[in-house]
Amino acid sequence: MLTTTDSVSLTGPLDSPALLRAAAPLTVTVDDAARARLDRGRRLFHDLRHGEGDEAPAIYGATTGFGALVGYAGRPDEADQCDNTLAHLGAGQGPDLPQGICRAALLLRTRSLAQGLSGVSPEVVDRLAAMFATTFAPAVPRYGSVGASGDLIPLAYATQALRGRGHAYVDGRRMPAAEALTAAGLRPLALDGRDALALVNGTSVTTAALALAHDAVRAAHRSLMDLTCLLADLLGCDPGFLDADLLRAYGHAGAIDAGAHMRRTLSGTMPSGTRPLQEPYSIRCSPQLLGAAEDALRYVDGVVAADLAGVSDNPLFFPDDHDDVSAKVVHGGNFFGQPAAFAADLLASVTAQLGNLAERQLDLLIDPARNGGLPPMLATVPGAQHGLQGVQLATTAFVAEIRRAATPAGMQSLPTNLHNQDVVPFGTQAALRSYDMAELLGLLCGSLALGLRQTVHVGARRPTAPGCAELLDALIDLIPPVDPDRPLDADVRAAARLLATRDLPRPDVPEQGWAGVRTPGT
Question: Is there a catalytic annotation at residue 60?
Answer without folding.
Answer: yes
